């Protein structure tokens, strides 16, 4: 059965613009990476905001054979990039009745436009393209509550399940660090801990994004933010809750979850 990229993209973007949930995947779920990214491209073309970065996530082992890339990407739009100073709280919307989660992540700000066509980046060679590295959070949200359960074909289709990238304090000494320990709290309760290794983690995620965009005939641009993958887990969160993400030696990031409303409301 063939998929209908424009129809799927229209359903997801219409629901996002209205701030409402979907009952099920709108059509035939993409079964290949090419199909999924075709839907994503159609959705990006329909969305009235500029792409200012990308979220990166690993493909779960259960889906690795069907979707044979170690990671996947989705767009982060200008309105959903939130920069917070130490002590500040980012206000981030999610879709009521849909999927909503927070993920502690390292965020990279890109230093310069990437060269067109170069698709052989590695975790070592990307270092000159790192303007800065920050503690941060991805706010994952979709109008479809079961999006993650369906798998990468669905996730890629709907903006990679992204609805926010929070850019916190700069990790000024990242070049001297091998790893950072992180803990996530929701409403004061610890919900997960983890450790991120700088080179295979964030730098590897940047390399993957550069290579993927080059394969798609595109580049990364100076100032783009790259949310490089979850560290402590994917933590379900509800409207009205607040999360706190503590990066040992680097500070913390706080997020207040709000309700997504119709565009222009």
Quick rundown:
The chain has 265 residues and is α+β, with helices and mostly antiparallel strands. Helix content is 21%, strand content 36%. It has helices spanning 5-18, 33-46, 147-150, 152-157, 199-215, and strands at 51-58, 71-77, 81-83, 89-94, 99-110, 130-142, 162-170, 179-186, 189-197, 225-227, 235-236, 242-247, 251-259.
Structural summary, described in words:
With 265 residues, this protein is α+β, with helices and mostly antiparallel strands. It has helices at residues 5-18, 33-46, 147-150, 152-157, 199-215; strands spanning 51-58, 71-77, 81-83, 89-94, 99-110, 130-142, 162-170, 179-186, 189-197, 225-227, 235-236, 242-247, 251-259. Strand 8 (179-186) and strand 9 form a beta hairpin. The radius of gyration is 17 Å and the shape is globular. The model has no long low-confidence stretch (mean pLDDT 97).
Write a concise keyword list for the protein shown above:
265 residues; alpha+beta; five-stranded mixed beta sheet
